[in-house]
Amino acid sequence: MTGQVDKVLDCKGLACPMPIVRTKKEMDTLTSGQVLEIHGTDKGAKNDLTAWANSGGHELIKDEEENGVLKFWIKKG
Length: 77
Fold this sequence. Notes:
The protein is α+β, with helices and mostly antiparallel strands.
């Protein structure tokens, strides 16, 4: 992904709801417009993070899967 990533959060090996809990905590440390890159292995994370980002007024810029690792980029609203 092009563009600046302000922080990377490693949630690999964590089951829901931990990726969301950790993501929320990290997002609280960012300022509006900053981007958090999240790495996870829990298949439910995609739906959960998408719903969480929408409900929180954040933007899920992109998500992809690479070698079994799910990667998400969320811009803080």
